[in-house]
Write a structure and sequence with these properties.
Chain A contains four helices and nine strands; from the N terminus they run βαββαββαββαββ. Chain A has about 170 residues and is of the alpha+beta class.
Chain lengths: ~170, ~600
């Protein structure tokens, strides 16, 4: 238990969709000195009554357990699930604007094709790509775009879900 | 809350619906202070007689009073403050209640909903400010939510690990008609479902360890107090059944009778020699309702290195937070104790009585050190030792229904060491937050709950000035609280640390320009008494107890006295500093890491 190795954890939190609930979750992380590497939130029930927050965090095994226990004791939290304890899927979407002309522009398009990024807007001097995938795939694509005129990025953050029949509720 | 829909009744105003909900929750007293945003509530209070309102002189005191009320009765304490400064003044009290797990419902006024966010007069983002200061908080934006939120707030405050809950009430919500419905019996919350029943497999594991223990110790905390007097009774029964030594945390004092031979006294930074060394040397530790606070553990890497640890706590987040444990048990202390008792009786393994007897012989040698020892000269004119003042107070109050509150500092530790508590709910102190100024308002709340009891605030001359305005409340409501000031003219604990850690440079710790506490008492319609030497002490204590009015007893004590034993910052339980009474006693020097700790 006195393990000092840091691990990354992807934690899904099902919450009552009430005013201030996101502030509660974020305040818990900042107030207790935990890391947030990545965070997403959106309603997931048809009536909008519940939201799902996905947090990617880092810490020792003891800290990760502590984060889950602290999240679980918040009054509007229904369920805390550590997806990284088992097989799971994690995806992010990015909108990426690359400015340039000539060969660089053509190279950007070829690489986008290789990464299965979609062109969703284009001018003679720009492309805007839409790319979905795991965080490291997005990071790799952005690294490639940097010398080719990468101008702006908007990322959604991670949405994650367990593999197989396992569900959060 | 879930449950069947109860019939609703439309009340003329939100304020009336609110009061009806409070009455349904069993509220008989509110500690509060009026202001613009809560005038509708004060108007509704004026027109009824069931709920008594105690007008404090500062909102922080309202929360501490409610804490004293709650901790001495086991009920939820209720606070009413206005918007803006009313709410911000209450924040210290809310954090105090959060740290010490005290059930509080705080009602705060708010500007009307249409003005929220406009920087209106006396507007503050109260739910934003108090989010990390409460167990949960609410802003009521619609009249139809008001009563449900009030009922829910009481459920959240008193169940699970208790704590403060704040409800922010915009003025228009208090004025507009609002539907009333009764609280649902057996109601459960949509998402909030605290676990109270322990896992039976964990209980069996715990008993298996305890039965085979050679050097066991029971370490019980405030969670036992919060679980009600029955939990304290069961703790006593279980401890006597096992014959194990037991120590209490600061918050747990009274959970086990202090006069019992199995009781080792308080543990931790200023705990007894025997309690700390038993913790250090044990092979099985049973923690019930305590949270391995840093004041208890000292340096974590040196904490009870050779023990198997069983930790029962109602809050799963307290388990494995700082100290890794072998048997985690999530549950209410009462339920855990019942289960432990049953499993102990069912398990046919005979405990190792020979090893236990050997362990007790070891503990008795530590006990023989008499680590709380001090020397009081009885020569006429001798200066009073603060420990002696507490002992004499204890002797004079034995056999009475006595409740003790404290401020924070040396006097608090001496009270914890030298006043013996036989029952739970008799000891009110600010443990986690360490709030100077807690004791007087807390004593007010205790006296309101127990009008005929003797309620003493053991104070220091510095702490008492932090909420001294509450003398006015004592006078107005004829609350005969006794304030027993151990006056050493220093912020004693600050001075002690400066002496031990900062080369005796007493930076800003001298209580310069103190008031004359006797005259101060008289100006607040109370009785002022003073003991300057040991000859005066017993007479002053007797007079203080006899007078049926609030009293300030100014006890002039030795300025140089320090609290011992002491585990210096960053040291382990086996590295205690003993007092000057112990010749040749030496402790560790404080490390650089220790210097950075508080």
């Amino acid at each position: 238990m006195s393990d000092t190795n840091l691990r990354s954890a992807t934690i899904s939190v099902l919450v009552e969709n009430e005013s201030g609930v996101l502030a509660r979750v974020i305040g818990l992380f900042s107030g207790r000195g935990y890391n947030i590497d990545n965070l997403t939130v959106a309603p997931v029930e048809r009536d909008g009554s519940k939201s799902r927050i996905t947090v990617v965090t880092r810490g020792t095994a003891m800290v990760i357990e502590q984060i889950k226990a602290q999240l679980d004791r918040l009054v509007p939290v229904y369920k805390v699930l550590d997806l990284s304890e088992g097989p799971h899927l994690a995806r992010e979407l990015a909108l990426i604007k690359v400015l340039g002309t000539g060969e660089k522009r053509a190279e950007a398009l070829r690489l986008a094709d290789a990464f299965r990024a979609r062109v969703i807007d284009a001018t003679t001097e720009s492309f805007t790509f839409e790319l979905t995938g795991a965080t490291d795939k997005l990071d790799a694509f952005l690294d490639l775009m940097r010398p080719l005129g990468l101008a702006e990025v908007s990322r959604t953050g991670v949405a994650a879900i367990a593999r197989g029949t396992k569900t959060i509720s | 809350m879930d449950g069947t829909i109860a019939s609703t009744e439309l009340m003329n105003s939100g304020a009336q619906a609110l009061l009806r909900a409070l009455k349904a929750q069993g509220v008989d007293v509110i500690f509060g202070y009026p202001g613009g945003a809560v005038l509708p509530i004060y108007d509704a209070l004026f027109q009824q007689n069931e709920i008594k309102h105690i007008l404090v002189r500062h909102e922080q005191a309202a929360v501490h009073a409610a804490e004293g009320y709650a901790r001495s009765t086991g009920k939820v304490g209720v606070v009413l403050v206005t918007s803006g400064p009313g709410a911000t003044n209450a924040v210290t009290g809310l954090v105090d209640a959060l740290m010490d797990s005290i059930p509080i419902v705080c009602l705060s006024g708010q500007v009307p909903t249409h003005l929220i966010g406009n920087d209106a007069f006396q507007e503050a983002d109260t739910t934003g400010i108090t989010r990390p200061a409460t167990k949960h908080n609410y802003l009521v934006k619609q009249s139809e939510d008001l009563v449900r939120v009030v009922h829910e707030a009481f459920l959240v405050a008193r169940t699970g690990r208790p704590g403060p809950v704040l409800i922010d009430l915009p003025k228009d919500i208090l004025i507009a008609p609002a539907p009333y419905r009764e609280p649902m019996t057996g109601a459960t919350h949509r998402s909030y479902r605290p676990r109270t029943e322990p896992d039976p497999r964990r209980i069996e594991e715990a008993v298996a360890l305890l039965k085979r223990a050679e050097r066991p110790v029971i370490y019980a905390g405030g969670g036992v107090i919060n679980a009600g007097p029955e939990a304290s009774r069961l703790l006593t029964e279980f401890t006597r059944l096992t014959g194990f030594p037991i120590t209490n945390t600061l918050m747990g004092l009274g959970a086990y009778p202090a006069s019992d031979p199995l009781f080792l006294g308080m543990l931790g930074m200023h705990g007894t020699y025997e309690a700390n060394l038993a913790m250090h040397g044990c092979d099985v530790m049973l923690n019930i309702g305590a949270r391995f606070d840093d004041r208890v553990t000292g340096r974590l890497s040196a904490f009870s290195p050779d023990s198997k640890k069983i930790h029962a706590d109602i809050d799963p987040a307290n388990i494995n937070k700082t100290v890794p444990v072998d048997v985690p048990i999530v549950g209410d202390a009462l339920a855990v104790l019942k289960a432990l008792m049953a499993a102990w009786n069912k398990d046919s393994t005979q405990p190792n009585r020979a090893a236990l007897a050997q362990w007790w012989r070891q503990i008795d040698t530590w006990r023989a050190k008499d680590s709380l020892r001090y020397t009081q000269s009885r020569d006429p004119g001798s200066i009073i030792k603060p420990q002696y003042a507490i002992e004499q107070l204890y002797k004079a109050t034995r056999g009475r229904e006595t409740y003790i509150t404290t401020e924070v500092g040396q006097h608090q530790m001496w009270a914890a060491q030298h006043f013996k508590f036989e029952k739970p709910n008799r000891w009110m102190t600010s443990g986690g937050l360490g709030t100077m100024g807690y004791g007087l308002p807390a004593a007010m709340g205790v006296q309101v709950a127990h009008p005929d009891a003797l309620v003493v605030d053991i104070a220091g001359e510095a702490s008492i000035l932090m909420n001294i305005q509450e003398m006015g409340t004592l006078a107005q409501f004829r609350l005969p609280v006794k304030i027993f000031i151990l006056n050493n003219q220093y912020m004693g604990m600050v001075r002690q640390w400066q002496e031990l850690l900062h080369g005796g440079r007493y930076s800003s710790s001298y209580s310069e320009a103190l008031p004359d506490f006797v005259k101060l008492a008289e100006s607040f319609h109370a009785v002022g008494l003073r003991a300057e030497t040991v000859d005066d002490l017993d007479r002053v204590i007797a007079e203080m107890i006899a007078v049926d009015k609030p009293v300030i007893a100014d006890i002039c004590v030795d300025q140089k006295e320090n609290v011992f034993p002491m585990i210096p910052s960053g040291a382990g339980h086996n590295e205690m500093l003993l007092g000057p009474e112990h010749k040749g006693a030496s402790g560790p020097s404080v490390t650089n890491e220790g210097m950075a700790l508080v």
